[in-house]
Amino acid sequence: MPRKVIIDCDPGQDDAVALFLAMASPGELDILGVTTVAGNVPLALTQRNARMMCDIAGRRDMRVFAGCERPLRRDPITAEYIHGATGIDGVDVFEPETPLQEQHAVDFIVDTLRNEVSVTLIPTGPMTNFAAAIEREPSILESVEQIVSMGGAMREGGNRSPSAEFNILADPHAAEIVYDCGRPVTAMGLDVTHRVLSTRERVARIRELGNDVAMATAGMLSFFHRYDTKKYGSEGAPLHDPCTVAWLLEPGLFETRRCNVSVETESELTIGHTAVDFWHVTDRPHNVDWAYTVDADGFYDLLVERVARFGD
After folding, report:
1. Which uninterrupted H or E stretch holds 131?
2. Residues assigned a catalytic role
3. Distance between CA atoms of residues 309 and 312, nearest Å
4. pTM greater than 0.85 (yes/no)
5. Residue 3: CB partners within 8 Å, gap ≥ 6?
6. Fewer CB within 10 A of the terminal residue: the chain, N end or C end?
7. Residue 310 and residue 312: Cα distance in Å, rounded?
């Protein structure tokens, strides 16, 4: 039986690729809904971008919901300087046919978890929607099988501040709620995602597939790598968000360690920092399976194989 999932995202080129990877895998993942949140760009763009990806993938049956326009307790931040003004620069923007559902994303999450069991939550942006749902109705956690998130950093420091990765910095209070909710959490932080580089050779492999999803993916990644290759001096941009879906499809590509991850929510200097007790030097409870290494070639083999399916 496919695993029931809710994907919560803020597309963003890498969120878009995560959606493609999930939609290419119906045998493993039953997508109950796609919820969107303000993050890389404002909510009006993230919900449109998610619906565009459904159109491109030929999945206009996907239910897409718009959620929170701002973090729980802080002013919003965005990342157009990385993702471009549209959030998905590198692909032509159009008005999607996939409809936006009328229900608010948080209401959808609460209602779904009241009526389903063993649902996996996949947040690839700020965790505002999931945290708001948990605060509103804590009993829904009984229906959460696990949470697989993209966010945080340990050895890699931060990518938006010296101490913090963007998704956690954008809503640290939400991340704290999710990490401490008592359900199994697996976190894909920069320590892993910075190893999964969209090099020109890897992008060329995707482009050669020639289908609509492949061309959109190659176009977005070709734009996406411009900023990070200059910033890091690397051969390609880190492909962050698809690591969550890849772990669900092929967990053997990753190594994880069960440990405590605490989120800084007070200090203006280090707010959003994820304090990862990797070596168990404290007695804080183990609340997260922290991913710390990945088979990058195997990851791209999986991505290419799944994107090729859209040509069938």
Report:
1. helix 128-136
2. 240
3. 5
4. yes
5. 28, 29, 30, 118, 120, 145, 248
6. C
7. 6
Nearest residue to 172 via CA among 127, 129, 133: 127
Predicted confidence (pLDDT) per residue in 33-67, tens digit:
999 999 999 999 999 999 999 999 999 999 999 99
Residue 46: closest CA among 19, 24, 26, 25: 19
Q: Is the dihedral of CA 66, 72, 78, 79 positive or negative?
A: negative
Residue 228 identity: D
Backbone φ and ψ for 59, nearest 5 degrees, come out as -120, 60
CA angle 295, 7, 21 (to 5 degrees): 45
Beta carbons of 273 and 163 less than 8 angstroms apart = yes
Segment 148-173, tens digit of pLDDT: 999 999 999 899 899 999 999 999 99
Q: How many residues does the chain have?
A: 312
- The parent domain of residue 109 ranges over 3-311
Q: Which of 138, 128, 48 shows the shortest CA–CA distance to 93?
A: 48
Is residue 81 packed enough to be buried (19+ CB in 10 Å), middle (13-18) or exposed (0-12)? exposed
Q: Structural domain tally of the chain?
A: 1
Give the percent of the chain with pLDDT over 90.
Answer: 91
Q: Residue 175: which of 163, 165, 162 has the closest Cα?
A: 165
Which residue in this structure is represented by tokens 């895998």? 25
Q: Domain of 69: which CATH number?
A: 3.90.245.10
Whether the CB-CB separation of 280 and 158 falls below 8 Å is answered with no
